[in-house]
Amino acid sequence: MDQWTVISRIKNEIPDKWTEIVKCLELLRNSICDTHNIISAELHELVNQQEYVKISDYTKAAELIGKLIERIDKIMAVIDVDINELPHQPIFQKELIDIAQFDKYTVGNDNSWPLTADFTNKKPYGFRINNLSVVRVSSWRQMLVRVCQYLMAIDKQKFLNFRNDKELNGIKRQYFSTNYHSMIAPKKIAENFYVETNHSSNTIRDLIIKLLKEYEFNPENFYVYLRLN
Fold it and tell me: What are phi and psi of 54, to 5 degrees?
């Protein structure tokens, strides 16, 4: 049994423990990051005070903690991954099919899924906002990035302010930030501005709904097109 099968079974068969593991790792990472920030601040003071002997010790400590954060990130990248994207699942090998052929594979007469649908174990082909052209994507994470870029183009300052909005960020982790070091899978959407993409398909769906409402878009006018399973 490979690691991906184990991960999938834990998440699907023991969801409470899965959630506990993820939360504990997030708490551990946040605590270590706080420690790293404290050491970095102390290091800055030591430089100003020209305490060169202590500088060497603090620098080594900062480097070791930085490596520890990287190790935790690698673990979290494995266990906190969207199950829809695990390598052990069948991968869509054919070319992306035309939108016109989607009546065979999707729900609804208009060949699209509403944004309120359950997207568990489904993969996106693209999305459409209002009557605009379909934007093709290869993953839910890419869909989140494209939506963010679209909304930012409409009103950049509004979007930049999301980093201070508690309703649009996680309890322990920022989803929008200028500091990508605090994220697990950051994607750059503007100069010195990042979005956290390490979410499940339905979490991304919920986040997109919130973003659309912030821009006074009706989520009912957002359509999702899916790949052939």
Answer: -70, -30
Tokens standing for residue 74: 């690698």
Angstrom distance (rounded) from CA 71 to CA 88? 23
Sequence ranges of the domains in the chain = 3-80, 99-226
Contacts for 120 with CB less than 8 Å, ≥ 6 apart? 84, 200, 201, 202
Per residue in 50-68, pLDDT (tens digit) is 887 788 888 888 888 888 8
Alpha-carbon dihedral 160, 165, 168, 170, rounded to 10 degrees: 110
Structure tokens at 215: 């821009």
Segment 11-32, tens digit of pLDDT: 778 877 877 787 787 778 777 8
CA distances from 42 to 7, 33, 35, 90, 116 (A): 39, 14, 11, 50, 48
pTM of the shown model: 0.55
Q: How far apart are CA 173 and CA 30, in angstroms?
A: 8
Using alpha carbons, select from 158, 101, 149, 108 the residue that is nearest to residue 125.
101
The residue behind tokens 């919130």 is 210
Q: How far is CA 147 from the centre of its chain?
A: 13
What CATH number is given for 99-226 in this structure? 1.20.1380
